[in-house]
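Subgroup meeting minutes
Present: P.N., E.W., G.H.
Scribe: E.W.

1. P.N. recapped why we're keeping a running log of single-chain structure predictions: easier to compare across weeks, and new members can see raw inputs and outputs side by side.
2. G.H. added today's entry (212 aa).
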Amino acid sequence: MTISTELRIPDSKLAREITELVRDTESDLLFHHSSRVYHFAAYAGKHRGLSFDPELLYAGAMFHDMGLTDAYSSHDKRFEVDGANAAADFLRARGIAVTDVNKVWTAIALHTTPGVPEFMDPVIALVTTGVEMDVLGIGYDNFPAEERERIVRAHPRSERFKEDIIQAFYNGIKHKPATTFGNVKADVLADKDPSFQRINFCSIIRNSAWRG
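Output recorded in log:
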């Protein structure tokens, strides 16, 4: 599962256990997406000269969508919190320090909250970077084609990835619509400014630089 001679999945018992659990729990779509998130995040961290713990970054990336699975989805919490709780339980059971558990929890809980993680610890910031790159194509041109191709060869994107990932989000949240309450500022603008147009997440996915 090595992507290059310089960046690879952490060679540790913890990382192997994470891989095994996520592989056994998530669909191929989500597993390969989460794996790409890690590699894009790690590359971004390297390019920016950031210091981060690869194991914690791997945990954040691999668990970030676990809340979309039947095994870890609650009936009343945001899927991000479900995934964060799953990661925290997993890490605590293996004796990981509380501060590190909290770091991973926050990285997962905030990965759909743009404009905040980038100012936080590198693990938190980079999980969001990886997600935004793989799903929305944000920063696409900052990754050399060779890097993108290595990652996609190791963890392929389906031909219909954009539609498939939207469907996966829908399947994971349709039973708890109240948890989608989000950015109240957009609600205020929509209420007061007739010219305001909401940014549509699905449209960004479909119009991203990625093919498929």
